[in-house]
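User: Can you help me understand a structure? I only have the sequence.
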Amino acid sequence: MASIHKNIPIDAPADHVWDALRDFGALHTRLVPGFVTDTQLEGDVRIVTFANGTVARETLVDSDDQRQRLVYAITSERLKQHSASAQVFAEVDGRCRIVWIADVLPHEIAPYMDAQMDLGAAAMQTALARSAKAKSAA
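Assistant: Let's start by predicting it. Here is the structure, written out as tokens:
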């Protein structure tokens, strides 16, 4: 199984970032706007439409406020297995980082997933820094 790890520095406080990350239905408005164009909730499943036109069904596995960790799984015809977690860690300077890990099969899809996660990470950095700055200015 391919395991993809992203360590994403975020110029925003951990509580602000966790609040956006745990908002499972708001990917397109709070966490990764532009990278994700729409999110629809059906119970514990979110149907995610990405900017490249791909649609994914992501099932919420766990949302842990104490650990600031969210876990989800994707089911599709292209993927034999996909599970992912994103966890927020506070830094001493008032910023934080997100550790995002995805385990995927088949191995051949890993380069695509890795590139998509890079795009998602960049969108997170931009959106969360912007929203934290706007919140502190208000």
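Now, to help you interpret it: The mean pLDDT is 95. The longest helix spans residues 110-137. Let me know which part you'd like to focus on.
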